[in-house]
Amino acid sequence: MIKTLEKTGRTEDDAIAAALAELGLDRDDVSVEIVERAKSGFLGIGASPAVVRVSYEAEDEPEAPAEPEIVEAAAEEAPAPAAAAEENPDYAAIRTFLSGLLERMGVKADIEIGPRDNGGVNVNLSGSGMGAIIGRRGETLDAIQHLTNYVVNRGSDKRMHISVDAENYRSKREESLARLAEKMAEKAIKYKRSMALEPMNSYERHVIHTALQNYEGVTTSSTGEEPNRRVVVSYVKPEPTSNKPQSREWA
Hints:
Elements lengths: L1 E8 L2 H12 L6 E7 L13 E8 L10 H10 L11 H17 L4 E6 L5 E6 L3 H5 L4 H15 L8 E5 L2 H23 L3 E2 L5 H11 L5 E6 L6 E6 L16
Parallel strand pairs: 5-6
Antiparallel strand pairs: 1-3, 2-3, 4-5, 7-9, 8-9
């Protein structure tokens, strides 16, 4: 379940930091919308704090997958590779589940597992059948990531975030989305109107919001209902400059 939290701060970064501190989450775990940018005012008059809305996935127990018997069989029947015995228990559990799931999908892949910079685990799949693993706009890859997190974290006292990638698809997609975000921001400023992007999942919307959170002249928001929820890039009219006379230097 996606929940939201609004926070204020002297700057946008202060408001985001306050929200993350209250939720106990990292920046990569949330999507941020700038509700209102901070205004400094003139000599402190008319100043107002920044307001941000942070969206995050609640820690409720996720629903069981549509075909639990397949998931259970993949986790229980697949023999653990010999290398798994030398891995830490968390990595071994991830490898065992993914090996069984990929075998049932008829896909052979190398599974590389390592730590994330901000905690959690990174998994990268590589091989000849990665098109079927990624799916349309990464939908199959997202489903595999969801199932992996559900099965490995089930019954555990601590929740470990597992990011599953294939042939570095996510980093390539992030670069493509960042370029798209800047292109739409340029159009919003040029035509002085809002620009709506195509429907995206929460991960892709998060990438767009992050790419433009400090982009001068625009603000971003999300509109619509899943699965047709999309990001809107809106033009922000510059604040009027002070009427105070400017000093001149005469040559």
